[in-house]
Every structure is written in structure tokens, then in C-alpha cells.
Amino acid sequence: MTPSNPPIYGEGDVTLQAVGGLTGLQNLVETFYCIMKNTPEFRPLFDMHPSDIELTIDKLVSFLSGWMGGEKLFSKKYGPISLPQAHAHAHLIVTEKEKAMWLNCMAAALDELGYSEELKAYLLPQLAFPAERIRQVSAAKHGESV
Asked: What domains does the chain contain, in order, with CATH numbers?
């Protein structure tokens, strides 16, 4: 893309291509979980995940692939996605604190990998939507005070 013709994130697979396609997305998600594991402020999030982090990585890559306009790998591998229910996360207690940690950890991964400010400015607010839905489902299941 040239400066006179900037990418239009959210259109087709532009966002997926901006992160480097499926290979770049895999690297982003692996970096995200590496930061989560090794950074004390994010470690509580890592500890909420199953011990088989490779499966978790694959699920997030598969979800984000379709979400970024690429192939809908999650539904092919794991079945339908239900963001309104966010059932895969319903057992977790997710408050504003965990939601913010997740988004901040993703921001750290994007920074570490040197993605553009324009991509980050688009992507992080978009990721806040499913993160908020997970928080809402948690609050409904575990009580609004969580």
C-alpha cells in the first residue's frame, strides 16, 4: 500500500494481510502468549489458560484468521463460534481488569513485532468488542460485581 492509498482494515482480508497472513498471525499469537507467560503483570491471564497452551494458541489463531477476513479456520476445526454466548470463556472470571490486561498484552505483542501505529489503532479497539463480550458473559454468570 502506498501513502496515497492506505489499507482499509476490516475490508476483505486486508487486516490479515497486514499482520503477515496466516504465518504472521501465528507469530503474533505466539508472541502474545510468550509475553503473557513471561511478564509478571500479564502472568495471571496466562495462568487462566489450560496447560496445553499450543491448543490455546491454535484456537486463537483460528478465530482471528476468520475474524480478520481470512479463512474461517475455527469453525472448521472446533465448531461454530458463538460470541453472544462466549461459552468457551464462561467458566472464567473476567473483569475489566482481565479485559484490560488482555488488550494491553496484545498491544505489547504488536509493539514487539513492530506493526504500524495505524494497524494498532484499528486492531486494538476492534479486539475490545469480543473482549467486552467475554467480560459481560462472565459478569452474568458470576455476578455483576466480578
From this structure: 14-142 (1.10.490.10)
> 476483505: which residue's cell?
12
Total residue length of the chain: 146
Q: How far apart are the first and last CA of the chain?
A: 44
Low-confidence ranges of the chain (pLDDT < 70): 1-4, 82-90, 144-146
What does the alpha-carbon distance between residue 85 and residue 133 come to, in Å, rounded to a whole number? 8
pTM of the full predicted structure? 0.90
**Interatomic CA distance for residues 142 and 136, integer angstroms:** 10
What whole-number distance in Å separates Cα of residue 44 and Cα of residue 20? Answer: 29
SS3 of 17-69: HHCCHHHHHHHHHHHHHHHHHHCCCCHHHHCCCCCCHHHHHHHHHHHHHHHCC
Quick one: CA torsion of 58, 71, 102, 137, rounded to 10 degrees?
-100
